[in-house]
Amino acid sequence: MVEDNPHDAELTIRALKKANLANQLIHLRDGAEALDFLYGKGLYADRNIGNRPKVILLDIKMPKVDGIEVLRQLKLHEDTRTIPVVIMTSSKEEQDIITSYDLGVNSYVVKPVDFEGFAKAVSELGFYWLITNQAIY
Amino acid sequence: MATAFNRMTGQIYMMWHDLEQKVQDRTWQLERANKELDAFSYSVSHDLRTPLRAINGYAIMLKEDYGPQFDAEANRIINNIVTNATRMGQLIDDLLGFARLGKKDLVLTHVDMQDLAHAVVNELLQNEDNKDYDIQITGLPVAEADAGMVRQVLVNLVSNAIKYSSKKERPVIQIGGEDHDDYTVYFVKDNGAGFDMAYADKLFGVFQRLHSQEEFEGTGVGLALVKRIIDKHHGTIRAEGHEGKGAAFYFHLPKKYKYERQQSGDLIGRG
C-alpha cells in the first residue's frame, strides 16, 4: 500500500485486518519510497526485488512523486508492469481516471467517505486481488 | 485628403490592434480563471473528502472498540458525528456533480423516454423496502436530449416523488408526457407532501430546501441540477404543488435543436 495520509492508511489497515488480509501488508508513505521499494534502491537497496507484491494499492495525491507518476514508471518498466496496480483515491476527477487507464491501471477505486462503505470496498478489493485473482509470481 | 485618409487608416489600425490585444488579455484571464476553478474543484473533491473519511472512520472505530463501555448518550453522540460526516460527503459529491455539469457538452440523440422512465423507476424502487407504490407511466414521447443528462433529470424527479410520497398510506406517482410540433413536454406527479406555491421560486436553487432534514432528508442539490440540465437543453421547467396533497413537475424540451446546433458545431463533443 502506498499512502501518505496516516489516517487513511490506518483505516485501510484496519479494514484489511478485519478481513484477515493484512499479514503481509507493507505500507509505503509516498511515491518516492514506493519506487525505491519496488526497484530496490535507497533504503531498500538490500531488498530482494524478485519478491513481487501480489497487488499494489496506490493513492494518487502524494508529496514528491504522485501516484500517477508511480503508475507510469511501473507500467513502463519490464520487471514491474505485470504487477496488478489498484488506484485508491478520493478523486473522482475524470482526468485522473482517464490517465490511469491510459497508463494501464488494473482497477480504479474511489474511496467512499463513509467508513462502512470504505471498509467494504477495501476488503472486497483485498479478497479479489489476493485470493480470487491469479497473479504472475 | 490623402493625409486625412492615411491618418484615419492609421487610427483604425491602432484601434484594431488595441482591440486584439484586449481580446488576448481577456482570453488569457478567462483561461487562467478556468484553470483555477479546475484546481479548486479538484481540491474540493480530494482534500475535503479525506479528512471527512477520517472523522467518520475514527468515530466508527470508537463505537466498535469502546461502544459497549459507553452509555446510550455517548453512543448517540457518536452516531450523530457519523451521520453528519456522511451527509457532508454527500453534499460535496452533489455540489461537484453540479459544478461539473457546467463544463459538460451536450450529446443530443433521440431518447426513448418511456423506456427510460421504466428503467429509472425499477432501479429506484429496488432501494425501497417493499412499500406499495402505485406508479403509472404513460405516453412519454421520444426526446431530443443528452441521454445521460435526461436520465439524471428523471432519476432526480422520480426519487423526489418517491421520497415525498413515502409517508402516504397509498403513494401514487404519475409519469407522462405529450408530443407537440416544436417541443415535447414531460411530467412527474406525486400525491406526497407537496409544497407551498409561495416558495416555488426557491425550489430550484442550490441548497434550498422546503422541508427539514427530520421530515425528509436531502442535500438541496437535486432540483438545482435538474434545472441546470433543462437550461442546457434550452428547455423550461416549472413546478406546481399543494401542501400535503402533492407536487407536479413539468419540463419541456425543444425539438430540431440537434440539427440546428450540430451545424454550428458548438455543442457536440464528448459526453
Question: What does this molecule look like?
Answer:
The complex is a heterodimer of chains A (137) and B (271). In chain A, 43% of the residues lie in helices and 9% in strands. Chain A contains five helices and three strands. Chain A has helices at 6-18, 31-39, 67-76, 94-102, 115-132, and strands spanning 56-58, 85-89, 107-110. In chain A, strands 1-2-3 form a three-stranded parallel sheet, covered by helices on one side. In chain A, helix 4 (94-102) links the parallel strand 2 and strand 3 (107-110). In chain A, helix 2 runs parallel beside helix 3. The model of chain A has no long low-confidence stretch (mean pLDDT 91). In chain B, the strands form two sheets. Chain B has a five-stranded mixed sheet, covered by helices on one side. A two-stranded antiparallel sheet of chain B has the order 1-3. In chain B, a hairpin with a 3-residue loop joins strand 4 (172-179) and strand 5 (183-190). Classes of the chains: A mainly alpha (137), B alpha+beta (271). Chain A binds chain B through residues 5, 7-8, 10-11, 14, 60-61, 89-93, 111-116, 118, and chain B through 42, 45-47, 49-54, 56-61, 82, 85-86, 88-90, 92-93, 96.
